[in-house]
Amino acid sequence: MITKEIYSGETHQWFMFGRDPSKPEKIIDTNQYMIRTPKSALLMDPGGMEIFSAMLASVVKQVPITQIHHLFASHQDPDIISSLGLWDTALLDTKLHAPWLWEGFIRHFGMQNIEYAPIADEGGRLVINGVEVQFIPAHYLHASGNYHVYDPVAKILMSGDVGAALEDDDAPLEVEDFEEHIPKMHGFHQRWMPSNEAKNDWIRRVRLLDIDMMCPQHGRVFTGDNVGKFLDWFEDLNVGIAIK
User: Fold this and answer.
1) Which parts of the sequence belong to the Metallo-beta-lactamase domain (predicted)?
2) 19 phi and psi angles, rounded to 5 deg
3) Crossing angle for the helix pair 225-236 and 196-206, to the nearest 10 degrees
4) How confident is the model at residue 244 (pLDDT cuts 50, 70, 90)?
5) CA–CA separation, 140 and 134 (whole Å)
6) Three-state DSSP class for 163?
7) What is the set of domains in the chain, with CATH numbers?
8) What are the φ/ψ torsions at residue 227 (nearest 5 degrees)?
9) Which pairs from 13-21 meet CB under 8 Å and 24+ separation?
10) Mean pLDDT of 218-229
11) Are strands 95-99 and 68-72 parallel, antiparallel or unpaired?
12) Does residue 151 sit in helix, strand or coil?
């Protein structure tokens, strides 16, 4: 599994984990992200149970496991959080920040030691060792209770399934040619994003943020002008096309 530091500042760093060549063949590739401060860490969308061992090995190279005090799940999908029961056996004094709507479902993955910290519909904030991040509502994109994570200092938006693309294991980590990248995103967004109203509400909300990097849970990271290009493209895309 590739580990890449995507931001380093005075107070914290961001890491991206993904492109795991050892994952089972039929398992979709996922990106996991972590914010590390000197004393605490937030692990975001930590992945499915099939990649737990690779994730654990990669994460502990960057932070002591005793400092992982926070997990975040953007929604309830198994590729995001089905490893919860395994993390539950490995972590102490840890909270899972996830939608209030999905608590009864997420607990099916196993949760005895980790504390569930429900996120309200309007979102919220989390301070990690002095570093504040925001939980941005992204409801119905594609889950009915769904959030993204925004770091106003690093200017990074962890965007869950928004911006996702279906890629080969050896694909680059960053979007280079936006037009070339569109076919990898088009069908995914049209089918998995069910509501144009919800999509446009999210776009209006996100355009108010100062974003240098948008980091989806599948595919490549968007940087610089490609963030705005994605928002423009997504705004023009008609989604929820399975029912006509």
Assistant:
1) 29-218
2) 55, 55
3) 150
4) low
5) 18
6) coil
7) 2-236 (3.60.15.10)
8) -65, -50
9) 14/151, 14/154, 14/156, 15/62, 16/173, 16/215, 16/221, 17/55, 17/58, 17/59, 18/173, 19/169, 19/170, 19/171, 19/173, 20/51, 20/54, 20/169, 21/169
10) 97
11) parallel
12) strand
Q: Could you tell me if 88 and 111 are in contact, meaning their C-beta atoms sit under 8 angstroms apart?
A: yes
Gyration radius (Cα) of the chain, Å: 17
pTM over 0.90: yes
pLDDT at 194 over 90: yes
SS3 26: coil
pLDDT on residue 241: 75
Work out the average pLDDT over 34-55.
Answer: 97
Of 244, 43, 7, nearest to 128 by C-alpha is 43
List phi, psi (to 5°) of 230: -65, -45
Residue 104, sorted as left (phi over 0), alpha (psi -120 to 50) or beta, turns out to be alpha
- The answer, yes or no, to whether residue 242 has pLDDT greater than 80, is no
Identify residue 142 by its one-letter amino acid code.
H
Summarised one tens digit per residue, pLDDT across range 64-100 is 999 999 999 999 999 999 999 999 999 999 999 999 9
Burial of 170 (0-12, 13-18, 19+ CB in 10 A): exposed
AA identity, residue 198: A
